[in-house]
Amino acid sequence: EVQLVESGGGLVQAGGSLRLSCAASGFTLSSYPMSWVRQAPGKGLEWVSAYHTDGGGRTHYVDSVKGRFTVSRDNSKNTLYLQMNGLKSEDTAVYYCRPEIEVPWGQGTQVTVSS
User: Fold this and answer.
1) Residues 66-100: pLDDT tens digits?
2) Residues ≥6 apart with Cβ < 8 Å to 12
3) 3-state SS assignment for residue 75
4) What residues contact residue 78 under an 8 Å CB cut-off, 6+ apart?
5) Residue 83 half-sphere exposure, CB side, CA atoms within 13 Å?
């Protein structure tokens, strides 16, 4: 069964850190470009970060998180991570991981940053 399970969210004060995890099953995560996307209250989906499949581990970030967020991948655990430092109130959202194939959405993980 193809499944994505996001975890690691929580309530944190501004300036704090969280590490999100995205555990994949039913497909090999490293075979596809992976992204983190988020949805803030009352807003649409926003792309946050991507981890590409080329051997160099090339990554991209939306400007608003550059220098604060780091995406990484553990192939042995079939898991994608998002290390979030220097969190701001505008980072409050539900975070999802998505591969570049059509798979069911995970439940997401809620990140709430208090100012």
Assistant:
1) 999 999 999 999 999 999 999 999 999 999 999 99
2) 18, 87, 111, 112, 113, 114
3) helix
4) 23, 24, 25, 28, 29, 30
5) 7
